[in-house]
Specification:
mainly alpha
Length: 89
Amino acid sequence: MIVYGVLATTILYAFEPAINNGRTSVLFLVTVTICILYGIGDEFHQSFISGRFASAADLVADTLGAVAACFAWFFWKRKKISTSQGFFQ
């Protein structure tokens, strides 16, 4: 979960201007989709390695890590924006 959370955060950081344009839901969907596709590729690759196997539970954990990172990023951005506007506004 942590590694895919970091992957999602990296994708969000790369596309940060889209967040500033108010397209957070689209960016959220694209980020999670990229992480899911990467996870599918990773699980497929593991199926060819001796002693490793593909697991749907791993893919779910990877997806949850990406979703958690997206929520954390957006809540952090929202809080950062609201506190930068000043206390009395």
